[in-house]
Amino acid sequence: MTSEFDFDYIHLSLPEYNSKPNDSDKSFAELFQPALGDAIKEIIVGNIMNESDAEDAIRYADLVAVGRATLIDPQFGLKIQEGRGNEIIEKISPEQVKKSHLTPGLINIFSDPKMEPHLSGRESIYDLHQKGTLDESVIKNGTGASYNLDNFKK
Known about the structure:
three-stranded parallel beta sheet; globular
């Protein structure tokens, strides 16, 4: 199937990087590998929050993406590269919000108690949430994780 298209990579965004279908003992990343072949790289992301997670995740794919952990600690990758993985900050806090230079929009989304996926430690920033300030054209049903894709179909 991949011979019909010119892919450089496939990016799997999962709730957990090692997620498995209910009927399999292999992860989604492992199941995709045979169909991709050697020329197409596979990237995974999903709840990689520390050095141990990153080391385990690279066993499943060619590249590992780190989202939420980098929002909490922008030096995530640098700390691992320099052998300081034990210094990675894994929980958001009011102090870390300032150090991470999060935008007001990100602060508002991540400080919403109903938002999924959430940042570890988010209860410490609930008081930063400004209810009713998010644009309904971007986010549907308050600050849930379901995006309103109807606007992109126009």
